[in-house]
Every structure is written in structure tokens, then in C-alpha cells.
Write a structure and sequence with these properties.
alpha+beta, six-stranded antiparallel β-sheet, SH3 type barrels, protein dimerization activity (chains A, B), Arc Repressor Mutant, subunit A, two-stranded antiparallel ribbon, WH_DNA-bd_sf (chains A, B), 214 residues, homodimer, DNA-binding, 2 domains
Chain lengths: 214, 214
DNA sequence: GCCAGAATTTAGGCTCACCGAAACCCTGCT
DNA sequence: AGCAGGGTTTCGGTGAGCCTAAATTCTGGC
């Protein structure tokens, strides 16, 4: 009733992260695309997760985590993000290179090793992309944020997070020295002015990946 | 023809380590016991490994690695031992606590991360138990060694390795400050005298786990 | 040289996580 | 209201890796 294998954890994690920065529930087909599996595989796993009380699902409807499911999901996300932070902070990885490694290690590391890493890093609150690292009890501290692509011209603030979905975007932004904490003003659509007065043109893909202070 | 999953890697690793400090080939049933699986499971996997050219096996006979199999096996052993060394050297583990964690991580870590760890550690030649860490090309440097239980009284030398099979033995020896590098003289069966003149009584289990300079 | 008992293999089955194809349900458009 | 098309589920099937029970083969002791 309770074990949650690596595959199930991936489903829970993906359902969780889908609603982390926007509020619509995920559909089975969207989940299939994100996980790279066939829709029928999703149906099957959804049945198991619902039977275990980790998600709720009415046939032909969207998916939602239960409290138990959210706890399990945040535990996986916590692992993933602590590992990413560690890879960048101690192991010489760049922020566009950590995702795949963390994807695998998050299912392999013991709680003990995870806490040893957490301690070495000084209990970080965010990963290299600016995503909040859930606490061990599942608590997540997430500031209000707007997508740069949807911010109004004139908006001033700082970068909160950059989605790690597209490594090319991450490399582009790293080259432009833009990352979590960068302060800016939106001078025109896709044009930001940094604190030192330099302006940067961001691609539409980047603008759709950058979340800034509301 | 070539993938080698985690399970297959465990079979290869176990076949390899069985002949590392003694020279008789392993039998299918011994392999089953070590891996904790049924004999029939061994038969099945053996068939696959033989078909992939990683081991040789005549029906009802013992198992032996081919050159390709040995290369694959030493790669896994290399991972395992580097991870153990890292857990002890940087993550605050004791030498009796690293085995299980390494057992899992050895199948999850990427080559890149492994080399990052190797570099941080300064390219160690031995793990915390004194086992040699194979080079990336499969080369292993193993000094001639005798089991303490089989050494003649009067034998003087130093501890080369302690088998990590039995954590209780490792804890016992750690309490007695005995480990790889410890110099001693065998004063009587199960009694050793250390460099500082102190003598120690070792249990039969420990004497059967300690390998010393020949 | 034979044969009992141990080791090994075969045979048949199980679970997990996946697949493609076919059936089914729902919605939006006419 | 009816229906086409897309989303979802069902159905039958696959490969890994494991199991137990039932052959089969080998071997040591007489």
C-alpha cells in the first residue's frame, strides 16, 4: 500500500511541479508527454497511485495530489533540488548540466546522505535555478512571481527562478549573466535593463522560462 | 547485446570480487547465496551474460569472466570503491556504514560525477577497507596478501585490507584501532602485537577477514 | 560400478512498467 | 441535437528479473 518505486515517484513529482508556478491541474496526456510515456501507461499508473491514496482522479478528468501524495512528491523534489545544488556548489557542474544527473540520483540517495549534503551546503533554501527546496516536512516557501513574458513594460524587479526545462535557455542566460537574483527593469517586450545600465534582449523562449518578482 | 542493467552489473561484480583475493572460480549456487536470489535466477542471468560474451560457462560448471566481462566488472567495482572512499572521506560515514549506500549509488552515478569525486579525493588507490580501486582501464594493483587466520605465528607485517562483508567485524576492529596500514607481529594464534607494544586478541571472524602483507 | 544426495537446469508463473491498437467518452461546433 | 475529433481508457502483449517445484546431471562413497 505504501512503497512508491522510482517510476511512481516520477509521476508524483511531475504532477507536483506542474502546479508549482501555475495553478491549473495537469491532464493525463500532458503528464504522458512530460514523462515521455504512452497515455495508456499513465492511465495504468494513475490507477495505482489513486488506489494508494496519493492522487485523486475521476475518470476522464485531471489529476490532483492528495495531502499524502503531495508529501511524497515534495520529498522527491527536495532530493532533486538538493542534489542539483550540490552538483553546482561542490562538484563543478553548471546549472544547465545538473538536471539529468539529479533525475537519477534522486531515486538512489539515502536520507542520511541527503542530510549530509544538506548540512554541507548550509541548508540552502533554493536550488541553482531559483526553485525553492521543500523542507523535510513538505513545507515550501514560494514567493509570488510573474512570468517575464507576461510582465508589463516598465515592470522592475529581480529574477526569482528560471525553469530548468530547456538547457539551451539556461546556457543562453548564463552567457548573458542573467540568473536568480539579477535585478532589472523591463524596458520593452523582450528587452530588460540590468542594474548596471546594460540592456539585454531575451528570446521569447527565455522570457517564457523566467519568473520575476510580482 | 551490450547494455548491462543494474542487476547484470551486480552479477559481474560478485563474480569478480569472489576471485579477487582467492583463486577458485565461483559456482552458481555460491553466486545465488551472495546475491540473495534463487539458484534458478542465477541460471537465467548466466545464460544472458554468456550470450553477451561477458562470462564463460559450461553447463553444470563454474563461472568465469571473459576479458570483456572483467572490464565491465572492474568498472562497477571502481565505482563502488570510489563511492565508499568518498562517503568516508567527505560525508562523515564510518567504514562499516558505507557498503549499502555504495551498493545503490554505483548503479546511479554518471561517469562525469564519478570522475569529479575521484579528482576531489586525489585519485585514491585504495578504499577505506584497503581494497584496490581499479583504474578506468580496468587495471588493478593488488599486492600479495595472506589471511591473518592462515599466517604462521611470528609473522610480522601490516594490514592490507579488511573484508567489508561483516560490518560487526569492521566495528570491532575500528574500536581496537586496527585497519589498513596497522603494523603488527603475530604473537600467537589470534593474538597480535602492535607497533606500540600493545597486544590485541582478535576474534576468529576477524582473523578470517583480515589480509596482511605476505 | 552404482547410486544417493547435492548442485544445476528447466518449466511455468508472477509483478512492474512499459507499449500499440482498438474502444470508448466527452466536448464543441454546426 | 448530432456528430467529429481529441483525449482517455481498455485490452492484449512484451521484457526484465525474480520465484517455486519438478526434472536433470554430476559426484563421492561404498
Amino acid at each position: 500500500m505504501n512503497h512508491t518505486t522510482g517510476a511512481a515517484e516520477d509521476y508524483l513529482k511531475t504532477i507536483y511541479t506542474h502546479t508549482e508556478w501555475q495553478s491549473d491541474l495537469i491532464s493525463p496526456s500532458a503528464l504522458a508527454v512530460r514523462l515521455g510515456v504512452a497515455p495508456s501507461s499513465v492511465t495504468e499508473m494513475v490507477k495505482k497511485l489513486a488506489a494508494s491514496g496519493l492522487i485523486t482522479h475521476v475518470p476522464y478528468g485531471p489529476l490532483a495530489l492528495t495531502d499524502a501524495g503531495r508529501l511524497r512528491a515534495t520529498a522527491v523534489v527536495r532530493r532533486h533540488r538538493l542534489i542539483e545544488t550540490w552538483l553546482v556548489g561542490e562538484m563543478g557542474y553548471d546549472w544547465d548540466q545538473v538536471h539529468d544527473e539529479a533525475e537519477i540520483l534522486e531515486h538512489a540517495i539515502s536520507d542520511r546522505l541527503l542530510e549530509a549534503i544538506n548540512t554541507r551546503l548550509g541548508f540552502p533554501a533554493h536550488d541553482p535555478h531559483g526553485d525553492p527546496i521543500p523542507a523535510a516536512d513538505g513545507t515550501v516557501l514560494r514567493p509570488p512571481a510573474v512570468l517575464l513574458a507576461e510582465a508589463t513594460v516598465g515592470h522592475a524587479g529581480s529574477v526569482l527562478r528560471v525553469s530548468d526545462r530547456d538547457p539551451a535557455v539556461l546556457r543562453e542566460l548564463a552567457a548573458d549573466l542573467i540568473g536568480p537574483g539579477t535585478e532589472f527593469t523591463l524596458a520593452a517586450a523582450l528587452t530588460i535593463v540590468l542594474a548596471d545600465g546594460q540592456s539585454r534582449l531575451v528570446t521569447p523562449a527565455a522570457a517564457a522560462s523566467i519568473w520575476v518578482t510580482a
